[in-house]
Amino acid sequence: MKAVVYLLLWLTACQVRGMYIPREMNRTLQNLRQHYKISDEELFNGKPVFSREPLKGKVESKMLFMGGVLETYEKLIEHMLSELATPSPTITENQKPSSSVTASDEAAGDIRSKLTYILERVRELKRHHYQEQMKVLHGLQNLKHIKMESRVVQSKALSELRWFFEEASTLADTVMRKRRRRQARVKLHNRG
C-alpha cells in the first residue's frame, strides 16, 4: 500500500513539474527532436550539454546558473535558425509555383517556425523572470574582456582593489551572519 501511495505522489510531483511547459511547447519540442534526431548512444552517453550540478546550490546560485543556461539556449537556437536554408521567395498570385519550391523548403520553413516559437518562449521566460541574473551574467562576461597585459589596467585595478576587497569581505560576512541567525532560529524552534 505504501508503495502505491509513494508512486502516486511521485507521479503527481512529475505532473506538477511539467505544468510549467505549455502543451504547444512540449509538442513543438517533440517535433523538433524528430528533425534533430541522433542515435540513442549519442543521446544517452552520460555527457549532458548543461550540467545539473550547479542546481544543487542555493537559490541565488541556481537562478544565476539558469539565467546563463537560458542565455546559452537563446544563442544556440539563433545559431540553429541561421543554419537552416533561407526560405524561398513567396509566390504572387500571377506567378506559377516553380519546381524550385521543394518539400525540403517547406520542411525548413516548418522547422524555422518551430524554432522561432521555442526561441520566443525562452526569451519570454528570461524577460519576465531573469532580468537581474542577466545583468550579473553580462557583468561577468565583461570581466573576460579586461586587458590583463595593459599597464593602465593593472595600475587602475590595484587602486580599485581596496574598495572591492572591502565590499567582498562585507558581503561574505553578511551572508555568514544571516546563516548563523537562521541556524540559531532553527535550533530554538526545534527545542521549543
Question: How many helices does DSSP assign?
Answer: 7
Overall pLDDT metric:
82
* Uncertain residue ranges: none
Cα end-to-end separation = 34 Å
How much of the residues is beta strand, in percent?
A: under 5%
Shape: extended
List the helices and strands and how they pair.
Layout: H1 2-18, H2 23-35, H3 40-43, H4 59-83, H5 103-129, H6 131-143, H7 151-191
Helix pairs in contact: 2-5, 4-5, 4-6
What does this structure look like?
The protein has 192 residues and is mainly alpha-helical. The chain is built from seven helices and no strands. Helix 2 (23-35) crosses helix 5, helix 4 runs antiparallel to helix 5 and helix 4 (59-83) packs across helix 6 (131-143). It is extended, with a radius of gyration of 25 Å. The model has no long low-confidence stretch (mean pLDDT 82).
What are the salient characteristics of this protein?
192 residues, mainly alpha, extended
Summary of the model, kept short:
The protein is mostly helical. Helices cover 73% and strands 0% of the residues.
